[in-house]
Specification:
CATH architecture of the largest domain: Up-down Bundle
Radius of gyration: 30 Å
Structural class: alpha+beta
Strand order of the largest sheet: 3-4-2-12
Distance between the termini: 24 Å
Mean pLDDT: 82
CATH topology of the largest domain: Multidrug efflux transporter AcrB transmembrane fold
Strand content: 15-25%
């Protein structure tokens, strides 16, 4: 690499580091902006503040485990029923204001469970009450003053004042009468659609409902929330119908899953409840940050003491590595838990391990009488196979943990994986260019810096 390209890369990476550093820690950047604005009477804008997404153990909240009763469900429908139930519960939780809940299904032997994590939930009793209800599916038809309500709703939307009114009214047709819903494809266009089938009693209700609503929308609600409003094309007899629209295959699959979740009786029983107070979560976060800072300082001192100038440059690359990782945690976003922070701290050690392999190899090349330029090239070239294999095996284990682990294990695996990938970039590109910057300078001639 030419000197010009080397300088250009270093300038770019330093500017980028300042940017991601401000993104990771906007508080300190904005304090500096306020100081400049005060002294110069200018109006520099603040850097936008994107908070870290904290998990249950750091933010506090409620951890609930439910066991699903699938005794009335066919064995082949277990997975789809649980997935549909998960989607309905997630909508419920979002509806009463919990931000970014984590809801997942789990099979433990013959038992199927629903795990609900509500970070920051202030009223776990209300959450338990809402979650514990069986999903309710209903079909609604237009109210007589439908057009007037639509116009009033539009006015409310534009003015920002008043309340929205539901333009649909309930009917006697509910999920109780729906036998199943499944994805299908059109005979000619092969567009995705949803096929629904009612039992004999529901078929009569559906026939009567469609006969009086030809050309009108028929709304489908789950837990009072509309999920679809197809237009009735004709009277439908026999209890079988199809819902068409501009669906993608995934959208049609999701709609069928939600219909089944509202139709099938899947009671859930609360078997475990754990509440973590925000104070305890804050203490855990402070201790984790303290441990991370102490570990980072210890690693930097070790590098500088044993490897001198390369260790100092590697420490600079390590700081850049840390701010890049933290910025990625915000962008992805990654839910940070204690386990996730543990994976991040471990990745710092892995990042340094790559540098140590490179520095040790560079020293050996210098001891053989080679120039700094040749030693750097050989050091990186010969250390790369060990770095590649070591990081690949660790990354492979992290992927396995993420694929088969539970929530906290997945958090650990995700942060570790991101750390490994960024550490390779840090060691091979950032550290290498910082070392290349010393070629042909006075720093190259001071042998103590390199041995």
């Amino acid at each position: 690499m030419s000197k010009r390209k080397n300088y250009t890369f270093i300038i770019f990476i330093l500017i980028f580091a300042v940017f991601v550093g401000a993104f990771s820690f906007p508080k300190y950047f904005n304090q500096g902006v306020d100081f400049l604005n005060e002294k110069s009477n200018l109006d520099f804008p603040h850097f936008w503040n994107v908070p870290f997404k904290l998990g249950l153990d750091l933010q506090g909240g409620t951890h609930l485990i439910y066991e699903a009763d699938l005794s009335s469900i066919e064995t082949d429908d277990y997975d789809s029923s649980m997935q549909g139930l998960r989607d309905v519960i997630e909508r419920r939780v979002n509806y009463f204001g919990v931000r970014e809940p984590m809801i997942q299904t789990q099979q433990k032997g013959d038992s199927y469970r629903l795990i609900v994590e509500l970070a920051g939930a202030m009223d776990p009793g209300e959450a338990i009450k809402e979650i514990g209800k069986t999903p309710f599916l209903e079909f609604k038809e237009k109210k007589e003053n439908y057009e007037e309500i639509i116009n009033n709703n539009q006015k409310v939307f534009e003015d920002g004042e008043g309340d929205f009114e539901d333009p649909f009214q309930s009917t006697s047709l509910t999920g109780k009468y729906l036998e199943k819903a499944e994805i299908g494809f059109g005979n000619t266009t092969y567009d995705p659609l949803v096929l629904i089938q009612f039992n004999s009693e529901g078929a009569d209700m559906f026939s009567d409902l469609t006969s009086r609503n030809i050309g009108q929308p028929l709304a489908i609600y789950i837990d009072g929330i509309p999920i679809s409003s197809p237009i009735v094309q004709d009277k439908i007899s026999g209890g079988k119908a199809q819902i068409t629209g501009s669906f993608t295959p995934q959208e049609a699959k999701d709609l069928a899953m939600n219909l089944n979740a509202g139709a099938l009786p899947v009671p859930i029983n609360l078997i475990s409840q754990q509440t973590i107070g925000p104070t305890l979560g804050e203490i855990s976060l402070q201790k984790s940050l303290k441990a991370g800072i102490i570990g980072l300082i210890a690693v930097i001192l070790f590098l500088i003491f044993f490897y001198r100038l390369p260790g100092f440059l590697s420490s600079l690359a390590l700081i850049i590595y840390v701010v890049i990782i933290l910025a990625l945690f915000k962008v992805v976003p990654v839910t940070l838990t204690l386990a996730g922070i543990g994976g991040f701290i471990l990745s710092i050690g892995i990042a340094i391990d790559a540098n140590i392999l490179i520095f040790s190899r560079i020293r050996e090349e210098i001891d053989q009488g080679k120039t700094l330029s040749a030693s750097l090239d050989e050091g990186f070239k010969r250390a790369w196979p060990s770095i590649r294999d070591g990081n690949f095996t660790t990354l492979l284990v992290a992927v396995i943990l993420f694929g088969f682990g539970t929530s906290f294990v997945k958090g650990f695996a995700l942060t570790l994986s991101i750390g490994i990938l960024v550490s390779l970039f840090s060691a091979i590109f950032i550290t290498k260019n910082l070392l290349k910057f010393c070629e042909g300078t006075r720093l190259e001639k001071i042998k103590w810096f390199w041995k």
